[in-house]
UniProtKB/TrEMBL annotation:
PROSITE patterns: HTH_DEOR_1, HTH_DEOR_2. Keywords: DNA-binding, Transcription, Transcription regulation. This is DeoR/GlpR family DNA-binding transcription regulator. GO terms for molecular function: DNA binding. It comes from Novosphingobium beihaiensis. Coiled coil: none annotated. Residues 3-58 form the HTH deoR-type domain.
Length: 260
């Protein structure tokens, strides 16, 4: 196996959590420990990873020396204007799934933001990484808001921890509401691996994963896979979803709600 092939396998193996142990690498790669160390040295020199005790973690963002933090994908200010009516309808339906007084997690996004006005008076605890969502909920006296620690990514206005680090409060919730860059037969995708790592940490804390996506997000696309369709419990979308895609979702055991 060539060095480039091994490096790709190393990076692919780190997408889900942003971190991998040396032991896992030795099990995955047909290479000696010395060869793996050389691969990691090259990846670290290229700024793709940082070696830490027991393994390595991804470095998906720029360093403070090279410039501000950015994420791949559509900037929030642009995304919020796209398919707004559908997103607002999806937000209304999502809010109906919440029970008064419960704790929920709401991942940052232009669609998940639309459920916030409908949470007024429900006295929820909301864990979110989105400053837009924090701002929308602050006007609700009965809503308690929790945020993780990390760096602020200005274009999306979200707080994300470095890959491989867990900065979430001790919080377990019956429901996670999240969006996606794309959804296809291969699963739920995001444009940036740092988003994948953050969303995996949320998924691990949730009993139920509720995906909020307008119908334009259903297409075959390249991207980092957050989770398979079998990990999603409910999809809320609009009437534009193709019948074939809806059938694929339901075959995977996903409940589909159409927002009108």
């Amino acid at each position: 196996m060539h060095a480039e092939e091994r490096e790709k396998l190393i990076l692919d193996a780190m997408v889900a959590s942003g971190f991998i142990t040396y032991r896992d690498l030795e099990a995955r790669l047909d290479a000696s420990p010395a060869t793996i160390r050389r691969d990691l040295t090259r990846l670290e020199a290229a700024g793709r990873i940082v070696r830490v005790h027991g393994g390595a973690k991804l470095v998906p963002q720029e360093s403070p020396e090279t410039g501000p933090l950015h994420l791949a994908g559509t900037p929030f200010d642009q995304a919020i204007t796209q398919n707004l009516a559908a997103k607002q309808a999806i937000g209304r339906v999502a809010a109906t799934l919440c029970e008064p007084g419960e704790g929920i997690m709401v991942d940052g996004g232009s669609t998940t933001l639309q459920m916030c006005p409908h949470l007024e008076g429900m006295d929820l605890q909301v864990l979110t990484n989105s400053l837009h969502i924090v701002n929308a909920l602050l006007a609700q006296p009965g809503t308690r808001v929790l945020v993780p620690s990390g760096s602020v990514f200005r274009e999306q206005n979200i707080i994300l921890a470095p890959a491989g680090e867990d900065s979430m409060p001790r919080f377990h919730a019956p429901k996670l509401f999240m969006g996606a860059a794309a959804v296809g037969p291969q699963g739920v995708m995001q444009a940036d691996v740092v988003l994948v790592a953050a969303e995996r940490r949320l998924i691990d804390r949730a009993e139920q994963v509720i995906l909020m996506v307008d119908s334009s997000k259903f297409h075959s696309s390249s991207g980092a896979i957050v989770c398979g369709l079998d990990e999603v419990d409910i999809v809320i979308t609009d009437e534009g979803v193709a019948p074939a895609m809806r059938e694929n979702l339901e075959k995977a055991g996903v409940k589909v709600l159409i927002a009108r």
